[in-house]
Every structure is written in structure tokens, then in C-alpha cells.
């Protein structure tokens, strides 16, 4: 129900007559335009179509609701080289807690050294205009609807300094099989004016609505509708294709379309990018042509840590840490539940899953007999599957428990598994795979085992 209400809100936003209040006839009426420059080279390569995609610490900029999708801790740094010695930097950090996900970011634009002259044209000194924004963000999943907000301190310096405060608010929902379809909505830069001497100027208030679709594990499509108070509404498009090079490395190629610079003579509007993810260390590059003004090159580096907040709460004694780490590497794989499949097929799928996870070496698989599992499950009657999994993990002293089911529908076998962190008493991963035949089930189990890596 909440997701339907959110979808209705987006439709109303797209069709509301107040949309006409946003027009390029108001160009030049706002200040702090650096707040439009974006964060991260991945999004730049996608033409800035990122409102419904953001799932790392750059969500602080694009849509703070995406922060709740972060697993572990995310850090991101970007440096962009513009024309005429202008440089742009972004650094952000976000991590989950039991209260939700918190993050912070610094956004800085330097215009380079400019010569100051007197009334006769004689050079007196140099000065370096700059813009700065400090952001604090929070995101949380509220029963399937992701919500988030960001508060900002904004400073702009020419020779004097002007300041302002603003906030962003965003929402996001995931729909469809394996959450392949996402919708996002974000209001940005709603706040005070900036005052230089006697002149007050508004911040670049804007609204973004976006959708994205995962065609498969490799291919992502994204679309954003941007409406800024000082410009006509416009669409951004992006596409990303990712391929696995090794078990630990992936390569991504990106292309995007963004008409925001269409009035600049020369080749504009299109963007291109590359990315390499090696074991959670992510390097991204974007090429953004700006026509006759030159080209912007954006470089970013991101890290995704696997640990969650409990791991940092208290440093255990050396020997105790060894025991804890050993326990957290072990896993119990319960027998899959079945729907419209035979008991023999359930056992085959469960065995294939155990075997592939054992071969992956990500976990030490602790085997339990079927009779023993059923005996334990009967003791936890009335509990939801997640609670049963936690109790089984505690009974067998393991760090993780894998639960799941296999279902036959419309000619396919659908496998769904959930990885439960026993210490945190919560599901940390949900994975879906689809098999076209019984023979294809083992291949699906292999894909699942790769996705289980923390």
C-alpha cells in the first residue's frame, strides 16, 4: 500500500500544472550553482540519471533515501578537472547503525587564482573564489519505502563570504522480481537565500524523479526527470553494462545523455564512463564533453567495507577475536522450502546450494542432519523464518544461517535465499535466481554462492 501511494505521488508530480513554474526564463536568478555539479564519476558516466540508482555514499547528493541500501560502510572521493583551472572535489562517508544509515559529505569548487586590478588596470593581488557545502544525511527503510534527508551548510566566497542553509528530502521504492525496478524522488536545495552585500539570491531549488531497471545482472538502464527553478525540465538517460573479469574484479562501461549543456556550441549532451570494482575497491572515470568550453574529466575512488556497526563497537581481546571471527565465518544451510515442486527436487536444490557454497570457500559450511533441522524447527513453531534462522544459528554456534525456497511458476524455477547474520539477528542479503530447467538449477546455485560473498 505504501509503495502504491509513493507511485501515485510521483505520477502527480509529473502531471501537476505547477511544473510550469520551472523555466529557463529564470536563468541567472539563483546562486551556488556548484550544488548542481553532482557527485561521483559513475553517475556522470550515466548522464547524471542517478536518483533511483544511488546505493553508496554519493546518495547523500543524489537521493539520501538510497543510503539505507548501503551494506557495511561506504567511502567515496571524486576529483574533477574542468576548464580554466577550475577544479571540483567531493568526499563522502556513510555507514549503517541500528537506528538507520548516517552519512556526511564535503563538496568543494575552486575557480583558480584570479588577478585583482585597480581602476587603472594595475594588478594588485590574486584571489581565489570558491564554493563549499557540508552535508549531514540520514536514511532508513520504513517497511519497504526508503526515506532520507540531508541538511547542508553552504558557503560561497569571492572576496567576501556569503552563507546559507538548505535541506534535501528523498524517497525510493524497489519493485518487481529481485527488486529489478526502482523509483526515486528527491527535493534538493530548499533553504535560505545567500546575501552578498545588499543582494540576496536564492539557492538552485530542484526536484528530481527517476526510475531504473536491471535488465539482468549485467545491464542497467536509468532515466531521470530534472526540474530546476532556473531551467526548463529535462530528461537524463543512462546505461551501464558490467562484466565479470575474475571472481573479485568487474569492469563497467557507461554512456549517458544529459541536455543541460545543449546551448553550448560544439559537441555536448553525451557522457561516457568506465569503472573497475576490485574486491570492494572501486575506480571510476567519466568523460564529459562541454563543447567549445572544453572537456571535464571526473575521477572517483570508492571503498565498500563489509563490516557493520557491531564490529566497530568494541575491540575484543586478541584470543577472543580469533574465536569470534571463526564463528562468524561458519554457516548453516537449512533445507529449502518448496512450492509446486517435488521433495526430491527440493533435496537436489539444497544439496547443490550447499556444494557450491562449500566450493566457493567464502564460508565454512556446518552440516546438520535433516531430522535434526526438523526437530529444531518444531521447537520454534510460530516464529517467522528469519527468527527461526537466528535461533538455529545460535543453537549450532554459527555466524550465519541461509534460508530459502524454490518455486515453480510459468515454466521457470525461482530460487530465493536469505542470508541471516546471527549476531545482528537480521537478514543481510536477499538473492533471487531463475532457472529455465532442472539442469539449470545447479548453475543458479553457483551464481547465488558468488553473490553471498561479504
Write the layout of secondary structure elements.
Layout: H1 2-15, H2 41-45, H3 59-62, E1 73-81, E2 87-97, E3 100-110, E4 114-117, E5 123-127, E6 130-142, E7 145-157, E8 161-175, E9 181-191, E10 194-196, E11 199-201, E12 206-214, E13 219-228, E14 234-244, E15 249-257, E16 270-278, E17 281-289, E18 295-305, H4 309-313, H5 318-328, E19 330-333, E20 337-339, H6 343-360, E21 364-365, H7 370-379, H8 385-395, E22 400-409, E23 412-421, E24 426-435, H9 441-451
Parallel strand pairs: 19-21, 19-22, 20-22
Antiparallel strand pairs: 1-2, 1-18, 2-3, 3-6, 4-5, 6-7, 7-8, 8-9, 9-12, 10-11, 12-13, 13-14, 14-15, 15-16, 16-17, 17-18, 22-23, 23-24
Description:
- This protein is an alpha+beta fold.
- Helix content is 20%, strand content 45%.
- α6 packs across α9.
- The protein is elongated, with a radius of gyration of 25 Å.
- Mean pLDDT is 81; it is low at 307-327.
